[in-house]
Structure formats: structure tokens, C-alpha cells
Amino acid sequence: MNILEVRNLCHRFPDGTLAVAGADLCVAEGEFVILAGANGCGKTTLLRHLNGLLLPTGGSVAVDGVSVAANPRRARQMVGMVFQDADSQIVGETVYDDVAFGPENLGLTRPEIDRRVAGALEAVGLSCMEDQRPHLLSGGQKRRVAIAGILAMKSRVIVFDEPFSNLDYPGVRQVLRQILRLRETGHTIVLTTHDLEKVLAHADRLVVMQKGRIAKDGPPEAAVRGIDVLGVREPHASRNGMTLTSWLN
After folding, report:
1. Which PANTHER family did the record assign (predicted)?
2. Contact 191, 159 (CB under 8 A)
3. Run of H or E including 239
4. H or E element: which one contains 28?
5. Cα–Cα distances in Å, from 231 out to 37, 166, 207, 238?
6. pLDDT tens profile 50-70
């Protein structure tokens, strides 16, 4: 069953720029999809339609069969997004406050909020940091706080926009492990990245965009071949006929 359905999506910004030009994308529940493409190809614009941060100029986007445009509040509860700049997503004075922000806006009771926050922080390995100031954490820890906030909302789909950007090697490994744990617990994952080496071995599909359209879509080992012509660096292993391997090995 498809949890995400993007049909002939078009988005034109007020300045006239056509950022997405007739994109079609379906994602099955529990699937792990990587969305790649050169800068300006429309990846982030497409992602922002999945939970109603942007609404289509043309076409449609549905989450679990319900139009995002018709019910953006529902879409935002079902589809959580981790932004490239983790600091822009932090709103609380403490880690607890930040993770509790979403559930509080749902009008949940304090015991339910406490339960959700505790469970989310435990899931990302930050239970001991609930009183810490999030802006003072490392880059990898900030991303995990953002993930915890999404888990506290009980989002079924988690969207990552360049989750490894500006992270050092330990931070990349922390975030990658967390993404894989989410996949193991049944979450649907859509992730954009310029660095396929780090994560492609774990994905179910690779989707490549070019000029606002889907240019390639298929199993990673097949779809990755020759993508240099689409402005995406093909991983060294694929270029040399080797099997894609995990960064965590």
C-alpha cells in the first residue's frame, strides 16, 4: 500500500521559477527511499509538499489516501520533517521542551506528553539530556533531538533533508544508526543527500530528479549507474563494479 502518492506535481514560486515540473512519486509504507539530484533540481521543494509546508501549483499530493491540500494538519502529524539546518528546528529552551513542543500543540494531557517525550528520547539515546540546552549540543545530537520531536508526534513517515550535512564522522554514524533504527521499527523514510556513499547500501529505492522531474527511479544498484550525467556523483564502489557497502561496517 502506498502511504505517499505524488501525481503530476508542479510548483511555481511567485517569482515565476518552476521548481517542480510534473513529478510522479509513490512510496509504499515502510519503504526507504533516497531522493537525489543536483542543486536546484527540486528535491527540497518536492519534500515540502509531503506535509503541506508548500501546496501544489498543479497536480496532487496524498498521505495515506488523503489530500495534503485538503487536510494539511493531518499531513503534518503523519509526515515529520528533519531539516538540513537542525538549529532552525529547535524551539525549546531544554531538550525536553523542544521534544514536547509538538505534542503540546496537539492539546494532549501532561501525562501523555511526558510519556511521549520519555519514549522518544529513549529511542534516540538522549534520555539523560532532557534538561540540557539543545543549542549547545553537537550537530549529531541536535539532529537526534529533531528526530525525537517527530517520534513524539507519532509520525509514520519521516523525511530527512540532507541529514549528514555539516556533521563530522562520529555525527554521521550517530544519525545513520538512528535512521536505520527508524526503518527497523516500520517507519517510512524519504531522504535527500548529495553523498550517496553513506546511505545507499541501506535503501530500497533511489529516485533521481533533474530539472523538476523524476529522471530515474529504481533499485539502488541499478539506478545509481551512470547518474553522473544527472549531476550526481556515482559512488566509487558502483563506478568500479563493486557491491555497495554500509558506512557502519
Report:
1. ENERGY-COUPLING FACTOR TRANSPORTER ATP-BINDING PROTEIN ECFA1 (PTHR43553:SF24), HEAVY METAL TRANSPORTER (PTHR43553)
2. yes
3. helix 236-239
4. strand 18-28
5. 6, 21, 13, 16
6. 999 999 999 999 999 999 999
In the chain, what is the straight-line distance between the N-terminal and C-terminal CA atoms, in Å? 32
> Which sequence spans correspond to the domains of the chain?
2-239
Phi, psi of 189 (to 5 degrees): -125, 130
Count the Cβ atoms, other than its own, within 10 Å of residue 157: 24
Grid cell 523525511 in the structure block, residue: 159
Tell me the three cell numbers of residue 70.
485538503
For the segment 185-220, what is each residue's pLDDT rounded down to a tens digit?
A: 999 999 999 889 889 999 999 999 999 999 999 999
Q: List alpha helices for 153-207, DSSP H.
A: 169-184
SS3 at position 208: strand
Angle formed by the axes of helices 110-123 and 139-152, to 10°?
Answer: 140
